[in-house]
Specification:
two-stranded antiparallel sheet; 7% strand; elongated; mainly alpha
């Protein structure tokens, strides 16, 4: 998750810049209008959700997951659809908000799946480096 904060920070800056251009012409995090602050927070949350949903539905990996050679798939090994990606993002966010409870669940699960993976029917695969994959294949003939 820490690795994914780097591209997210860039996306948040771009999204914040677009917000400023569209609504304020200046950025004031202490804006007196609570509605505008709430809408900005919702906008940044939507950008975050889009980052994860696009990554999970297109290639099954975020940039952070690529670095750690992880891939998110459904039970049958296929990529997530938009509905599953959105549900997983919401549930993972709730898990994180509850002091990582859904993530800690994986420590006690026989299949090492998080609570949100269980609910969404997804699992995390560890990808082998190409050299190990080639060595583990049986010789032809």
């Amino acid at each position: 998750m820490v690795y994914d904060l780097l591209p997210l920070a860039g996306l948040w800056m771009i999204a914040g810049g677009l917000w400023v251009l569209a609504f304020h012409r200046s950025y004031d995090p202490q804006h007196p209008d609570m509605l505008m602050r709430g809408l900005l927070d919702a906008w940044l949350l939507l950008v975050t959700a889009a980052y994860f949903a696009v990554s999970w539905t297109r290639i099954g990996q975020t940039l952070g997951m690529r670095a750690w050679k992880l891939k998110l798939v459904r039970r049958d090994g296929s990529l997530l659809d938009w509905r599953a990606a959105a549900l997983r993002f919401v549930l993972a966010s709730l898990s994180l908000a509850l002091l990582g409870g859904g993530f800690w669940y994986a420590c006690f699960d026989a299949e090492r799946r998080t609570w949100h993976d269980r609910v969404c029917g997804t699992r995390m695969l560890r990808l082998l480096p190409l050299q190990k994959q080639a060595r583990s294949r049986p010789a032809p003939g």
